[in-house]
Every structure is written in structure tokens, then in C-alpha cells.
TrEMBL record, chain A:
GO terms for biological process: assembly of large subunit precursor of preribosome. It comes from the Eukaryota. Residues 168-341 form the OBG-type G domain. GO terms for cellular component: nucleolus. Residues 591-619 have a biased composition (Basic and acidic residues). SUPFAM superfamilies: P-loop containing nucleoside triphosphate hydrolases (SSF52540). Involved in the biogenesis of the 60S ribosomal subunit. This is Nucleolar GTP-binding protein 1. Keywords: GTP-binding, Nucleotide-binding, Nucleus, Ribosome biogenesis.
UniProtKB/TrEMBL annotation, chain B:
It comes from Wickerhamomyces mucosus. The keyword Nucleotide-binding does not apply. GO terms for cellular component: nucleolus; preribosome. One of its GO terms (biological process) is ribosomal large subunit biogenesis. Keywords: Nucleus, Ribonucleoprotein, Ribosome biogenesis, rRNA processing. It holds the Pfam family Ribosomal_S8e. Component of the pre-66S ribosomal particle. Interacts with NOP7 and RRP1. Interacts with RSA4 (via WD repeats). Residues 11-26 have a biased composition (Basic and acidic residues). Signal peptide: none annotated. Belongs to the eukaryotic ribosomal protein eS8 family. Ribosome biogenesis protein NSA2 subfamily. This is Ribosome biogenesis protein NSA2 homolog. Residues 1-10 have a biased composition (Polar residues). Its main location: nucleus.
């Protein structure tokens, strides 16, 4: 929670605010516009001005509203303090006026931007802008009083001492002129004014000091007069709120010399009337100015009067001091701090929530006994026999610490880790083991079972030798040639297979080129023939067939043909392997005429529309003259 | 320990404890003495917007000063400024007929007054208005998929559209009155009381430009509108509460974004 408000931005006066925002608009928006411009541009120009000004105002107001604390969100102490100092309602109304002005300005800007969208001329747009800014200015001018008030509040709020309501606090209160400020001056470094007249202190002052390495704050309050709270003025109310809201030790100051101008009876009366505020607080009555008059020198009735104050409440104590002579000041302070700490701890313990928080997390389970047998904890005998370790006992156990002492103490003695090794033979413990042998790490070649393995191998070898496994035999000469022949053939087959695989791979490898579909690859008849030959087929029938086809397909000219087929397809000599696509699959003349008719029918529609077909090839000029000649004007290079 | 931050009225306290700097009074006196020079320098050197602001401020100050001087001088003049009436002292003869007006003169003036009043019935605060051409009043809106048709019009002035008005189907609508430019209320000034009230408009009585505009409810300078004055609590001679009253528009609504009118009483 915020305790100080030192960085609230300054609140300008309404006139200044107007100047700031309008100036900004003038500086940060374009200024040149002419009637000859497009109307959309003129509208945008003025709309921008209106919007920009409105935004400027909104921003300022937002900062203002955000900077001031919300009086309902602060600590009750600060809330009441602000209420007495600044009048809560006035404060709220002022902030509300600012926020209302903000919404009004937003509304004006919206309205006029809408009207500007229908602006017909530069003059009209300008007038509309003028009207909009004028209305905003009127709204701001009406904020004159709230802004002036808020500026004052800001200044005062920034100078308020930073009082933390939750920290350790000593609160000094009492009648005016009883020596409260001088006590604060004695115990802290606070620069408080001390004057020999009543109401020198008109507001709360804070000083800090340390006690038992803890930071305490001491608060000096203005004097209180004994009258009903409704009649109290703002200065006294500050003290009342401090007493009411701060968790603290209250030091009630009294002046029994009556130099302050108030009698002892009055001071006792005031104590009793503000007593209800001391609930849940530790209270210390401090009798000041003992240098002038000691309490022992008082008449008996008056002493009784003072003693009466602490009756009925054992926690209240009376102490005496003299700030003038700085006598007993520190004892009073320390006593108050002790009381405060004690009461704070007490309150902490009282709060059940904290204890419960821990208790909720703990659960001790006790199983219900199933029979009467006692099951006691098992303690090993060795542990039982162990005598309790005692430093003074001469026969005590020897600890690692003792060994260290014997061998030169810390820093000299080095613990021998080898002592704790678990090995087969105790003697091996201290052996030195080479880490590197012949440039090799020994541990890489360690095998714990090497002896057993070697044993097993040797036994196996002996057994094999005994069985005659290693005896040589020379009786496979006869089968030798046959086997060699088979091996040769197998080798040839393997080679052939490898070659085929390689050639297939070569074929398939793209090698930066496209693959042709198999159907589109042309292979000459010679290639086919060769291939079949290599496979061992007889190709003579194929060759015969080919020759027959060639002779059959050759066009034989006759007189009748020449007369008949003048407009028909030209019988140019075609290569034998190309198919005649015009006549393929056409068995007789009737079919021929039918296909002709169909083709014509299909072409008719396309010709009628005169579409550009795939056959219509056209190469455009690479340097079109009309695009690259003549002078260049305003147009672009590609459109002229 | 960190030194404490100043608290509460530390400035006043400091002055109380240590006093002001020794030459404070002298500096103050000198500053006041130099003020005239500073103003003269500002008046000569400030340019542009700041110069304008300065001049305005200076003008206001001068007016206030002159008024003050005048009031001061008047207070110094001994005796009442106007001669007391009916102080039961005999007046000299040459002063006698100054107070009483001639009866004949009175009659003639009363006749003149009556004539004026009769003419007044038909007079309005703004008797003449600027003519507005159709080009200014209407904006042609092109329609059709090729934007080739131009029979639609949009009114560019502010209009009053009655409460129960429903637009024709968009396709048929010849004249568009944009919603953004519709006005429902007007700032009406009562000329005698000198107060201005924001009143709802009831109807457009007459637009001096053209009867067609009256029909369409166009609000231009000089248009007579009917406003709802029930808020003002006016009473007729017969004792009835007046509901509607005529008012004349005194500004160009399309330039100010609002309607200002003066009540015709």
C-alpha cells in the first residue's frame, strides 16, 4: 500500500493547461492547407487537429486522475487524515469533475469529427474545427477551481511525512505545550520546532530511531484539548486519528508543573475521555518537566488523582522524565519500546489464524493397538553398550577430530581416504596403483574376471587338441576340378548381376536431367535385334516381318488415284516408323467422311468465336516502340 | 541514519528559523521597479502566438486599470453625481419644464410606438438572409453499378427530422438527409430574460430560402423553428402554460455544429 505521494505530477492551472495543449496541437500537427486541395485531404487535416487536441486533453486528465490516490483505497489512517485535511467530499468532487470533463471532451471530439466528415469546403471545415476547440476550451475553463484545489492538495500531500501504519510506532500525545515535540527531538533526529507556546505543532511529525537493532518510528502529534470530538478542529483531529488507527504504544504526556496552562485535573480528565481510543494498545503515562516539579512534591490529593489514572488497568504505567535536562528520556523510550514489542508479540500469538495455519499442516497418526504385546523400539546391542561420549573423559572414543589434532591440526592433516576402501585383502589398501601404463589408461583394460576366462580357454584348447581337431587331411583332389568350374560360373553370374545393377543405376540416376517415360523412348530396330541376340533369341522371324511391312506400306502410285485424291491428303513420303495419324484406324471411305464431318463440326464453334488458339503463335516486340520513345512526362515508365 | 525528508510546512519553518536572505527585500523592490522595463521589452520582442497572447493579457490589464482609476476618481468627486429629486427646494424657472414632457409630444410618441408594435408582429430579429444555391445545398450522389446515374441528392446542411419519420427504401430515396447532420435540440435565447436554454425542436416552420427546404426541415440561418418551451414555464395571458413557441435560428448550424436560436416573443 502506498504511504507517500511525493511524485504526483503537477496540476497546471486551467489557463495553462489550455495553452499547453493548444500549443502542442499547433506544434505537432501540419499547418498548411489550401482551398485547392482535395476535399478529403482538407477534412482529414482538420479531423486530425480536433482528434489530436482531444487526445492531448485526455492524456493530461488521465495523468491527473491516475496520480492522485483513490481515497477509498488507502489505509484507513491516511483516509481519515486526508478527510480532515482536504475534506473528502471536496476531493472526490474535484476528481470527478476532471474525469467528467474528460468524457465531455471525448464526446465533443467524436461529434465534431462526425460533422467534419460532411464538411463541404475548407472554410466550413475550419469553422467546425474552431467550434470544436472552442467547446473543449470552455469545458477546461470551467475546471478552474477544481484544478487550483488539486494543485494545493498535491503540494500538501507531497509534504506529508511518510507514516507507515503497520510498523513499530511510538505515539506521543497530550495537552498542548506539555513537551511532546521536545521529547521527539530528544529521542530522534527529527527537525521539529519547539516553542514555548501552545499549538506549535500543527500537524503530524515523524522521527526514526533504532532500538535493539530494530527501526522504530515516533510520531509527534498536535496537542489535544478536552472537548467532544465534534467540536475539535482539524489540528486536533489529526492526533485523534493517529491514536485511533495506528498500532502503537501511546505515550500520554503530562505536565504537573502546570506551566503549559492546563491544570492537572484537566489533563487527567482528558486522559479519561480519550481512554476508549487506547483499547488494544499499550499505554505509558509520562510525567514531563520533572526539573521544575517532581511528582513527590505534589499534594496528596493530586498524587492520588494521578494514581487513579492507572487503576483498573494494570498495563498502564507511570514514568517521569525531563526533556529539558534530558533526564530519564532514554529509559522512557526503552520502556515504551519494550512494551510495544511485548504487545506486538502478544497480538501475534493471539491471532489464531497464524497458529492454525501451521497446525493444519501437521498430522500425527497413532495406530490403535491390536493386542497387548508391547512393541518397543529396537536398539542394537552395540548401540546400547556404547558409553556416552564425554570430552572430559580420558577413556573417550577416538574421533576423526582427535586424529586430526594428533597429526598437526586443520590445514596440515589430510584425511586418508584409502582407509575406508573395501578390498579382499587388507594389505592392498595402501598399495599404489598406476593410472597410466605404456601411455594407456589402466582402467580401460581392467577385467576383474580375467583369470577365470583364461583358465576356461586353456582347458578348451587342451580338449580340442586331445580330440585331434588340428590334424590335417589331404583327400579332396578328385573333386577339385569340378568345384573350380562351378566356382567360375558363379563368378561370371555374380559379375553379370553386378554389371546389370550398375547399368540400371546409371539409367535411373537423373544426373541433372529429366526422366523420359518409357513409352516415349524410341529404340531402333537394330537395338532390339542386338538385345534379343544377346539374350539368345532367334530374331530371323522379326526381321522378315519388318521387311514385309516396309514393302507393304510403300505408296504405289496409280492413274486413278491421282484424279481422285487431288484435294485429299498429300502423300508425302513418310518415314516407315511414323504412323499415319490421318488414316489410322479409318477402315473405309464412309468412316473417313464421317470423321471429316465431325472434325469440321468441332472446328466450327472455335472459328466462329475467332479465339486465339494454341496454334496462333505470336512473338511480341521485345522493345515496344510506344513505350520507349518520346519525352517522359508525369506518367510512369510502363504506362504512357 | 538517513537524514529525514522535510515534512509539512518546512519552507515556512525554515524562514522562521533562519530568516530570508539579507537582500530579499531589496531584490523584491528592484524586481517590482524593473517590471515596467520587462513589459516594454516583451511588448517589443515577443512574436507570433506568444506576442498575441501577451497583447491580449496586456489589453485586459489596461482595461481593468482604467476602470479602477475611473472608479477612484469618481469616489473623489464631492457630493452626489445626479441632482436629487423631490428635495423640496424651489427650482429655478429655467429648469422647471425639463422634467415634464409636452402632452402633444407624448401623444405623438405613443402613436409612433403603436405603429412600431404593429410592424413588430411581422418583424424578426434577422430579416435578411444570404441566398443558398442548390449546388451548395445538395450534393449529387452517383448511383448505378457504373456510377452513371445522378438522380440522388444528399442535403449538406443540418436538418430536423421528426420523431416518427421512416426512410423510404434506399433504392427509391431521392433526397438523403444524413443522420450525422440531424439536429433535435437548439440553444434558444430568451431576448428579454437574457437566458439561454437547450430546448427540443418541435418542427421547422419556415425556411426563408424555399418552401421545399421548409418541407425537408433544413436548418439554415434565419429559419423559423418551433421549440418546446414547457421547461421555461411560460404562461399565456389566459393563464395557460405555453408549450411550443417560435424561434429564429441565428447561426449557420453547419459551421458551428449546433443550432442557436432567439425566441420570438
Amino acid at each position: 500500500m502506498q504511504l507517500t505521494w511525493k511524485d504526483i505530477p503537477t496540476v497546471p492551472e486551467s489557463n495553462d493547461l489550455l495553452d499547453i495543449v493548444l500549443n502542442r496541437t499547433q506544434r505537432k500537427t501540419p499547418t498548411v492547407i489550401r482551398a485547392g486541395f482535395k476535399i478529403t485531404r482538407i477534412r482529414a487535416f482538420y479531423m486530425r487537429k480536433v482528434k489530436f487536441t482531444a487526445e492531448g486533453f485526455e492524456e493530461k486528465f488521465q495523468d491527473l486522475i491516475g496520480g492522485f490516490p483513490n481515497i477509498n483505497d488507502v489505509h484507513p489512517f491516511h483516509r481519515d487524515l486526508m478527510d480532515t485535511l482536504y475534506e473528502k467530499n471536496h476531493y472526490k468532487v474535484s476528481l470527478a469533475a476532471v474525469s467528467r470533463a474528460k468524457t465531455l471532451i471525448e464526446q465533443v471530439s467524436r461529434d465534431y469529427v462526425r460533422l467534419l466528415k460532411f464538411g463541404q469546403s475548407l472554410f466550413q471545415c475550419k469553422q467546425l474545427k474552431r467550434a470544436a476547440l472552442g467547446r473543449m476550451a470552455t469545458i477546461v475553463k470551467k475546471l478552474k477551481d477544481p484544478l487550483a484545489y488539486l494543485e494545493q492538495v498535491r503540494q500538501h500531500l507531497g509534504r506529508l511525512p511518510s507514516i507507515d501504519p503497520n510498523t513499530r510506532t511510538l505515539l506521543i500525545c497530550g495537552y498542548p505545550n506539555v513537551g511532546k515535540s521536545s521529547f521527539l527531538k530528544c529521542i530522534t533526529k527529527a527537525d521539529v520546532e519547539v516553542q514555548p507556546y501552545a499549538f506549535t505543532t500543527k500537524s503530524l511529525y515523524v522521527g526514526h530511531f533504532d532500538y535493539k537493532y530494530l527501526r522504530f518510528q515516533a510520531i509527534d502529534t498536535p496537542g489535544i484539548l478536552d472537548r467532544p470530538t465534534e467540536e475539535m478542529n482539524n489540528i486536533e483531529m489529526q492526533s485523534i486519528y493517529a491514536i485511533a488507527h495506528l498500532r502503537s504504544t501511546v505515550l500520554y504526556f503530562m505536565d504537573i508543573s502546570e506551566q503549559c496552562g492546563f491544570s492537572i485535573e484537566d489533563q487527567v480528565k482528558l486522559f479519561h475521555s480519550i481512554k476508549p481510543l487506547f483499547a488494544n494498545k499499550s499505554v505509558l503515562i509520562v510525567i514531563n518537566k520533572t526539573d521544575i516539579l517532581k511528582p513527590e512534591d505534589l499534594s496528596q490529593e493530586r498524587q492520588d488523582l494521578i494514581q487513579e489514572m492507572i487503576q483498573g488497568n494494570s498495563s498502564i504505567e507511570i514514568m517521569t522524565t525531563s526533556c529539558h535536562e534530558e533526564d530519564n528520556v532514554m529509559t522512557v523510550r526503552n520502556k515504551a519500546c519494550e512494551k510495544l514489542l511485548a504487545s506486538r508479540i502478544e497480538q501475534k500469538l493471539k491471532g489464531t489464524a497464524r497458529v492454525n495455519n501451521v497446525l493444519n499442516k501437521i498430522h500425527v497418526s497413532r495406530p490403535t493397538p491390536r493386542d497387548d504385546i508391547k512393541r518397543e523400539a529396537y536398539i542394537p546391542n552395540a548401540a546400547k553398550a556404547l558409553t556416552k561420549y564425554d570430552v572430559n573423559d580420558p577413556n573417550r572414543r577416538k574421533l576423526a577430530r582427535d586424529i586430526e589434532e594428533e597429526n598437526g591440526g586443520a590445514g596440515v592433516y589430510n584425511v586418508n581416504l584409502k582407509d575406508a576402501y573395501l578390498l579382499e585383502d587388507e594389505d592392498w589398501k595402501q598399495d599404489k596403483m598406476p593410472e597410466i601404463l605404456d601411455g594407456r589408461n589402466v582402467y580401460d583394460f581392467l577385467d576383474p574376471d580375467i583369470a577365470a576366462k583364461l583358465q576356461a580357454l586353456e582347458e578348451e584348447e587342451e580338449k580340442l587338441e586331445a580330440e585331434g581337431f588340428y590334424d590335417s587331411d589331404e583327400d579332396f583332389d578328385s573333386e577339385n576340378e569340378e568345384v573350380q568350374e562351378i566356382q567360375e560360373k558363379a563368378k561370371w553370374i555374380r559379375d553379370k548381376q553386378q554389371m546389370m545393377i550398375n547399368s540400371a543405376r546409371n539409367r535411373k540416376a537423373l544426373k541433372n536431367g529429366g526422366t523420359m517415360p518409357r513409352s516415349k523412348l524410341t529404340k531402333s530396330f537394330n537395338e532390339l535385334e542386338e538385345h534379343l541376340d544377346s539374350l539368345g533369341h532367334d530374331t530371323s522371324t522379326l526381321v522378315n516381318k519388318k521387311n514385309a511391312k516396309l514393302s507393304a506400306n510403300r505408296y504405289k502410285e496409280s492413274g486413278a488415284d491421282v484424279v481422285y485424291n487431288e484435294t485429299g491428303p498429300s502423300y508425302k513420303k513418310q518415314p516407315a516408323y511414323k504412323t499415319d495419324r490421318l488414316n489410322d484406324g479409318v477402315s473405309d471411305g464412309s468412316l473417313r467422311s464421317k470423321t471429316d464431318r465431325l472434325a469440321k463440326l468441332q472446328r466450327r464453334e472455335r472459328n466462329r468465336e475467332a479465339r486465339q488458339g494454341e496454334g496462333d503463335r505470336h512473338a511480341t516486340a521485345s522493345l515496344p516502340k510506344h513505350l520507349f520513345s518520346g519525352k517522359r512526362g508525369v506518367g510512369k515508365t510502363d504506362r504512357r | 541514519m538517513k537524514p529525514l525528508q522535510p515534512q509539512n510546512e518546512y519552507i515556512e519553518q525554515h524562514i522562521k528559523q533562519h530568516g530570508r536572505r539579507l537582500d530579499h527585500e531589496e531584490r523584491k523592490r528592484k524586481r517590482i521597479a524593473r517590471e515596467g522595463h520587462k513589459i516594454a521589452k516583451d511588448a517589443q520582442t515577443l512574436k507570433g502566438w506568444r506576442g498575441k497572447q501577451f497583447a491580449q493579457k496586456r489589453y485586459k490589464e489596461k482595461v481593468a486599470m482604467k476602470k479602477k482609476i475611473k472608479a477612484h476618481q469618481e469616489s473623489k468627486v464631492k457630493g452626489p453625481t445626479e441632482p436629487l429629486e423631490n428635495n423640496d427646494e424651489a427650482l429655478p424657472t429655467y429648469l422647471l419644464d425639463r422634467q415634464q414632457t409636452n402632452t402633444a409630444k407624448a401623444i405623438s410618441s405613443s402613436i409612433k410606438q403603436k405603429r412600431l408594435e404593429k410592424a413588430d408582429k411581422f418583424s424578426v430579429p434577422l430579416p435578411k438572409v444570404r441566398g443558398i444555391s442548390e449546388e451548395e445545398m445538395f450534393k449529387v450522389i452517383k448511383t448505378g453499378s457504373k456510377k452513371s446515374k445522378a438522380w440522388k441528392r444528399m442535403i449538406t446542411k443540418h436538418t430536423f427530422v421528426g420523431e416518427g419519420f421512416t426512410r423510404r427504401p434506399v433504392k427509391m430515396e431521392r433526397i438523403i438527409r444524413p443522420t450525422a447532420l440531424r439536429q433535435k435540440k437548439a440553444n434558444v435565447t430568451h431576448p428579454e430574460l437574457g437566458v439561454t436554454v437547450f430546448l427540443p425542436i418541435l418542427s421547422v416552420k419556415k425556411n426563408p430560402q424555399s418552401p421545399m427546404y421548409t418541407q425537408m426541415g433544413v436548418l439554415t440561418k434565419g429559419t423559423i423553428i418551433e421549440v418546446n418551451v414547457s421547461e421555461l414555464g411560460m404562461v399565456t395571458a389566459g393563464g395557460k402554460v405555453v408549450w411550443g413557441k417560435y424561434a429564429q435560428i441565428t447561426n449557420e448550424p453547419d459551421r458551428d455544429g449546433c443550432v442557436n436560436a432567439v425566441l420570438l416573443v
